[in-house]
Design brief:
By secondary structure, the protein is of the alpha/beta class. Helix 10 runs parallel beside helix 11. The chain is built from 15 helices and 23 strands.
Length: 546
């Protein structure tokens, strides 16, 4: 299975010498194949549902309609479950869409079933985190492999990173001091509201919901959220937590910076719109998105500040399967936004022979958010590209029609100006990302309440993404109030009816992050800042016109 996979280690994970206990529980997700004819029709229908001007625009599918349109047959599922039964495995569950079977089984059975060997790996960043992963290729009998695309959560390694905390910054405009002396000079909710112009308190129309997702021990604590609310005059609140929470990790271990950044700033923009926090210990995008689309009433907007390089995904099969699940989410009227990454064009893999595009930011069926700084530090005004913001062109997914005009214009104009990197570094025919951007760079980091009572500055597209997701949630509020459906999968509308409602960022580049030769900004879309940063006044004025 996944025949092109030839690497079973990671420099961020150390293999333990002692073999794992044969009774250790392995969790594996059997992803079933989708019928290619049904999948092509489903994708075409999604384009129609998401394109303003289409007679089908906004007629999002119910979960039952989506299952009918895309799911594998019951017979295909039975092939897999009969196979599991033959090994005496009883602890498995079939997903709502019949395309994933999640299995929990002892390691000794997993090794025999998949004809492979497992080892224990521990993170070099947080050594308390350990994973069971295979050390050699895996396989399935032909009759099972005909029904299964891949087996997930047995070979991919998550990228765990600790956020850098900044202790000081400078700001001339008063909004930079609006969270108190401990955050003087940092980006605050008042800074963001002044720049992007969103409502200070949306109406929270019934049915409007928003969420952020956290992985790998990124919990939150109410002490820090209360401190943020008190200092920044916000009303961040969590309506529901899915997957559990361990507050002591934040105050005792201080390991919650990513989650607190996401929650505090998504809530600062969206409150009182109900916010859900989804937690999953394993970093499995496929498992996560399957859980989202299986919900009876999933949040309408999802902010996710996690990712890896495409080359770190180990197989095209995995990325394509995730892409299908993102399509299902979009067809149900859900907007899924991901941060574009914080390592410029070189990604987490580092400087090499080619750039390293991000996944899932490079997927056409999510909306990717890049990062900017203010041109003048501490002064609210025009923005410049953050030189370490992720962006570029996917090596896996081709350029979609809905962005081809803007992206090809960039390639033509930047090329004529001598601003393109050497063509050997990137795939000019790939899906271009990010789609848009927001403040996220290190010039004025975000003020975040962390570590049970302290404050610090945090930067990255992990900050940009929840802010943009919050703005999309506010736009949904306006659409729902007018009796219109939510925005759902955003991208075709972004590049057509909404393209003129962004502050164009035509200053800066992704150079000087690890090494030069990144992409430069130019007027219009570019792979450093996408269409630009959101102009809420403009967006709110057109959002109900299509």
């Amino acid at each position: 299975m996944e025949p092109k996979v030839n690497k079973f280690t990671s420099k961020r994970w150390i293999q333990e010498l002692a073999p794992p206990d044969e009774n250790s529980i392995v969790t594996a997700n059997f992803a079933l194949k989708h019928d290619p004819v049904k999948a092509a029709a489903f994708e075409a229908n999604l384009i129609s549902l998401s394109t303003p001007g289409s007679p089908n625009y906004g007629k999002w599918l119910t979960r039952e309609q989506a299952i009918q349109a895309i799911s594998p047959s019951e017979d295909q599922v039975k092939i897999v479950t009969d196979f599991l039964d033959s090994f005496g495995v009883e602890n498995y569950e079939v997903s709502a869409f019949r395309d994933v079977v999640k299995v929990h089984m002892p390691l000794r059975i997993a090794e025999k079933m998949l004809d492979t060997k497992f080892a224990t790996f521990k993170s070099v960043v947080i050594q308390d985190i350990k994973l069971l992963r295979i050390t050699q290729p895996y396989s399935l009998p032909t009759e099972i492999a005909d029904a299964v695309k891949l087996v997930d959560d047995i070979l991919r390694f998550p990228s765990i990173e600790k956020k850098q905390i900044f202790e000081s910054s400078s700001g001339q405009d008063p909004e930079f001091s609006s969270c108190g002396n401990e955050c003087s000079g940092f980006t605050t909710p008042d800074v963001l509201q002044a720049r992007y112009g969103y409502s200070e308190e949306p109406e929270a129309v019934p049915g409007n919901t928003v969420s952020c997702t956290e992985f790998q021990f990124q919990y939150y604590d109410n002490t820090d959220i209360d401190n943020f609310n008190s200092n920044c005059d916000t009303s961040v609140a969590i309506a529901e937590t899915i997957g559990g929470n361990k507050e002591f990790v934040c105050s005792v271990l201080g390991g919650c910076v990513e989650a607190l950044l996401d929650i505090e700033y998504l809530g600062a923009v969206t409150s009182p719109i109900p916010m859900t926090v989804i937690y999953q210990q394993e970093f499995s995008l496929l498992d996560w998105i399957n859980g989202v689309i299986a919900m009876d009433d999933p949040p309408l907007v999802h902010s996710v500040s996690y990712g890896n390089d495409e080359v770190q995904q180990t197989s095209s099969e995995y990325m394509e399967e995730c892409n299908t699940q993102f399509q299902i989410a979009g067809s149900m009227g859900l907007s899924v936004l991901f941060a574009s990454g914080d390592q410029g064009v070189w990604g987490r893999s580092g400087v090499g022979q080619t750039f390293h595009p991000d996944f899932p930011a490079g997927s056409p069926y999510i909306t990717a958010v890049g990062g900017t700084n203010f041109q003048q530090a501490g002064v609210i005004g025009n923005e410049t590209a953050w030189d370490c913001g992720g962006g570029g062109f996917s090596d896996e997914f081709p350029m979609p029609d809905w962005q081809s005009a803007q992206v090809n214009a960039y390639l033509t104009n930047a090329g004529a100006s001598g601003l393109l990197p050497d063509a050997s570094f990137y795939n000019a025919a790939g899906r271009g990302y990010p789609d848009m951007a927001a403040l996220g760079g290190q010039t004025n980091p975000y003020c975040v309440a962390i570590k049970g009572g302290k404050f610090g500055g945090v930067a990255g597209t992990s900050a940009s993404c929840p802010v943009v997701a919050g703005i999309i949630s506010q736009l949904n509020d306006l659409r729902l109030k007018a009796g219109n459906p939510p925005l759902g999968w955003l991208n075709p509308a972004l590049y057509s009816n909404l393209a003129g409602c962004f502050y164009d960022v035509d200053d800066g580049s992704q150079n000087n992050c690890k090494k030069g030769d990144g992409f430069h900004t130019i007027p219009g879309w570019d792979p450093a800042t996408g269409l630009g940063t959101p102009n809420f006044e403009c967006l709110s004025g057109v959002i109900n016109s299509f």
